[in-house]
Design a protein that fits this description.
The chain contains eleven helices and eleven strands. The chain is an alpha/beta fold and about 260 residues long. A five-stranded parallel beta sheet has the order 8-7-9-10-11. A four-stranded mixed beta sheet has the order 3-4-6-5, sandwiched between helices. A two-stranded antiparallel ribbon has the order 1-2.
Length: about 260
């Protein structure tokens, strides 16, 4: 179901030819596209406000290209593809037809088919990462947030080993509607930021670190046990999930912007 279908359905409800209950059922059970290897959710944009996202890891370039084309044919103009390595991106781009530009960003290993929209959020999202080694996850978060219509401030390499680097950005942090705090090692950045701001902080542990970091488990547990109020945590290396949640928060209601 696309926007035009939904508008017609709502018109039918308004003139009494369709009951609200029937309309709700149609919206909830709108058809999927069966590609054999994938069942595409064509009505997700109607239900959730954002269309289906393609997770590139574990899929072939042929599968990714077919999914993108099917979503475009169904009316989804902008498509986000995450966890897409460069080699697979090149092959996917070669397979895409109809002049579709993959919009691949190697620094984030994601593709922005259809580009980014104009910002529609209530305020700004700050993406802060502890070190340069966290940049892939940080860029995944930042670009995902921009893809969903948010203005983003990037604060990179501001880990607690040099606290002055973070404090130099106190004004940007204070004006943020949401902060995404990304760190590996001991994961302390999220707690520090949580003690400095009054907005929600979404912590992203990364798999960066030496042996006892256990691939990000140490940072994950540290963030889960944060003593700073207002800190929530997503899975290891999940920049996408953090940005999606931050975007939902930033679009909740009008008139709540912290920007001055």
């Amino acid at each position: 179901m696309d926007k035009r279908d939904l508008e017609q359905l709502l018109s039918d409800v308004a003139d009494g030819t369709v009951t609200p209950a029937v309309a709700l059922t149609r919206i909830q059970t709108a058809p999927t596209a069966d590609l054999g290897f994938a069942q595409l959710d064509l009505s997700r944009g109607v239900r959730q406000g954002a269309g289906e996202v393609v997770y590139g890891a574990g899929k072939t370039a042929e599968q990714i290209a077919a999914i993108i084309e099917a979503l475009r044919d169904a009316g989804q103009e902008r498509i986000l593809v995450t966890r897409l390595d460069a080699e697979k991106a090149i092959r996917t781009s070669e397979l895409l037809g109809n002049g579709i530009d993959l919009g691949y960003v190697p620094d984030a290993q994601l593709a922005l088919v259809g580009g980014k929209p104009s910002p529609t959020g209530n305020g700004r999202i700050v993406v802060a990462c502890a070190g340069t080694s966290d940049l892939l996850v940080a860029e995944e978060a930042a670009l995902t947030a921009e893809f969903y219509g948010n203005e983003v401030d990037r604060l990179y390499d501001v880990g607690v080993a040099g606290l002055h680097r973070l404090l130099a950005h106190a004004e940007e942090l204070a004006q943020a509607q949401v902060v995404i705090a990304i760190a590996g090692m001991e994961g302390a950045l999220a707690s520090v930021i949580g003690g400095l701001v009054s907005c929600p902080v979404i912590a992203v542990p990364t798999s960066v670190g030496y042996g006892a970091s256990f691939g990000g488990v140490a940072a994950l547990l540290a963030m889960l046990n944060s003593c700073a109020s207002g800190v929530s945590v997503v899975n290891i290396d999940n920049g996408f999930g953090a940005a999606y949640q931050a975007s939902l928060i930033n679009h909740l209601s009008a008139g709540t912007s912290r920007a001055r």
